[in-house]
Amino acid sequence: MRKFIVVLLGATFAFAGCLKKNTGCSYVTSTTNAPDSEVTKLKDSLYNMGINSVTQDPSGFFYSITNMGTGNPTSNLCSTITISYKGSF
Description:
Largest sheet: 2 strands, antiparallel
Number of helices: 2
Number of strands: 2
Structural class: mainly alpha
Distance between the termini: 68 Å
Helix content: 25-40%
Strand content: under 5%
Strand order of the largest sheet: 1-2
Order of helices and strands: HHEE
Radius of gyration: 24 Å
Low-confidence stretches: none
Oligomer: single chain
Shape: elongated
């Protein structure tokens, strides 16, 4: 009987680790913004480097889309997407 209980408990723990936990979307809107003086300096720097076709995201970073993808255009804040990017200074 003890062996049966030990095997049953072991199986319970083994299969419990396989269960998918639905945590939902944990996106939280950031309220942190860069100071206006830094944003102005960054815009001036981009302009001086000849980078004029950038978009400023509401959170403060600048981006440029060079090759538009062909994936599903309906995404939301909790969607999982795959991108290729190149960052530089």
